[in-house]
């Protein structure tokens, strides 16, 4: 069996699955249940000055029969007294010494306040700290969370203040509500961060009730934007992890999150450069027990791939992630429809005909059966038909020969060539 | 009336095709769609409804996540014959019957998903379990049906040395020789047995306890004995003409379609099957597949009282089997060659309820009539292995061995599981219950043996 032990900037855990700072990690009772279920670590619900929460708080976007395709919340940080959280952290750490407990922190951008909370939380025995510069609602209106996290200088400054006193590794949790996350990631590293984590939630409004015209969710008829997470945000999070992993100057471990629902997304995040993953929505949807398949599935996957430990997985796809300008312009794939598997729903046909390149023909074979065939020369290899196809194995995207006379060439190489040609004239 | 259709013929290829598995497997697309439809209930009723307590939501979630090995392990961990059960369990009565989606939409296809995951393991030659560190405890199991095999697998996981004694040529009990191959192909049973043999369990086939080895020898050589011998042949009808050629025992008859011989050629024949349980349906559907021209199930009560499941009834109807309700055989007619040439029956009606609450069928006077048949198959239950039970000196009621909640029998260190403890009036015996009992006996034995070791050490 593969070794799943994890090390994120010196924070060790028996497996890479941590609960993200959120309702699942609100109390000692919950975190202990989570460790019992198999979670490797938990980032405690963000601690700071006491706040007041509203009712209601959550809403979900259901799509295609899936109850929770995306999840939205207007909850703030922990509403429990700091002393209570610290006492429970201490107790949980004593009961589960092998599991990682990370204290998530958020205070005003004030050096003394940061110093004080870091010292108090570390005294409770946490294995590391996570600075919450990501919460997009409520706290942001008070100059905290993503209001800090959107200003690289504030990220650098506050991280540096924390590092002045912290004795455990410091993770800086970044907000996705920003044009280019690598700017704030770099600022965190400059401030001395030992790791970065991403993503916190994305500004969102789940919906509008078409009878009452209230927002969803609403508090006595009034709404405010919330933060979006769950399966729907995975591609956004995965890109942000990939961008940070490949950008020079962000050479610290990444704790990845945003839409991790099973071992498969976890493996994807790790291939894209994350040292581990954090999970919130999937646990809120199904309970702590989902970690069992996350561990089992990842372990079976690694055995199948012949990988002994996570470092053989982490970051393997990063070198394959680059800029559009570095992609080969003359490389070609084309769709191939396997008519023996095809169920003739014709979804590929209409998708290509109406919205792509009109290269699928509806024909009859010798026996008069309906078949679909791709005109390979006209196919641009966009993947659309294979995406809309509901049947496994009915459409393959296969590599085809370059067009006659074509050599491999990227856009950047082409520009270079043209520039050279211009200067030679 | 005679065997006037005896010149009809059916080819081996046709027979093989007729006896190939009927239900097709789920495609990957279907399996993934179906598994994503599962609500992943907490404290799910389907788990409670499975006699072996498979964590069904978990194995289905693993199909959805593409963790097929994990899925197969979850199934086989709880049920050592989980690949067979995926095919033969009456799921409407068990897991699928308990699914919360009944009435909402359609219940999840738990049996088919279970088959999907275990098929994957079989196809990919997965080894799912290992024997535990070896203890010096020896356990004998008599009978290698699902009950004996399940006990053996669990005992081997604890590291005990297990020897199974099996009278038959090949192990597997009724899974191997009883349940029809078009529902349970022999390869599936063999895979489950291989998994167990690979864990170091010894199976001594062609070794009948009481003939090739005595109970005393077992008692001397083993720390505990599990009796998992199942049941015996189908009892006689006790009527005139029963000695005619063309009168078969349903269990033997089905067996002839599973031992590779297809020794009973029914091409063009007319068949009457007597009884309306699982075995009757199996014998009837085997008859059609052996080329019979017409097959009737003859039952003295009505459709409401038959013990075959609704899905079996549907299956039989689709096979073109005719049902003769409220009909009881009285005499088998023979021709000059001593062959069956007809079945005399009497019409019945339902009278007063008897002890088990079922209305007793009573003959209607002067209603006798002849059925034109050349084969009669009796499928009226199975006899109890009284001799075997007596040989071990076990207490029993009418051949049903008496056991306590941990499956301990009256003799010390003797346990009994499976059909040998299956009481009458409980509907139909099931593979899945036999397997669970085997597991439970194994846990009791392990506890006893470990306690003994600790006391000694
Ligand atoms: C035709 C038929 C169809 C069925 N269909 C279904 C179905 O669809 N679904 C379902 O759940 N159940 C079905 N059943 C019931 C199911 O097969 C049994 O409940 C189950 O096999 C019982 O398991 P067992 O291990 O107790 O006994 P068995 O499977 O009967 O195994 C007993 C074994 O012990 C061996 N043995 C007996 N005496 C000795 C001895 N003295 N020494 C050594 N070995 C001995 C026998 O050779 C045999 O291999 C069916 C039964 C029949 C007959
Ligand atoms: C209800 C709710 C409350 C949250 N509270 C916090 C918080 O206090 N601190 C924090 O850093 N992140 C908080 N988050 C964000 C999560 O930690 C996580 O970054 C995000 O949900 C993405 O992961 P997911 O897709 O697995 O849910 C919260 C998320 C939710 C849904
Ligand atoms: S989950 Fe339901 S019951 Fe529990 S706090 Fe929320 S609204 Fe109340």
Automatic annotation (TrEMBL), chain A:
One of its GO terms (molecular function) is iron-sulfur cluster binding. InterPro entries: 4Fe4S_Fe-S-bd (IPR017896), 4Fe4S_Fe_S_CS (IPR017900), Aldolase_TIM (IPR013785), Dihydroorotate_DH_cat (IPR005720). It is an enzyme of class 1 (oxidoreductase). CDD domains: DHPD_FMN. It comes from the Bacteria. Heterotetramer of 2 PreA and 2 PreT subunits. Homodimer. This is Dihydrothymine dehydrogenase.
From TrEMBL, chain B:
Residues 29-62 form the 4Fe-4S ferredoxin-type domain. InterPro entries: 4Fe4S_Fe-S-bd, DPD_II, FAD/NAD-bd_sf, FAD/NAD-binding_dom, Helical_ferredxn. GO terms for molecular function: iron-sulfur cluster binding; oxidoreductase activity. It holds the Pfam family Fer4_20. Signal peptide: none annotated. This is Glutamate synthase (NADPH/NADH) small chain. It comes from Marinococcus luteus. The lineage of its organism: Bacteria, Bacillati, Bacillota, Bacilli, Bacillales.
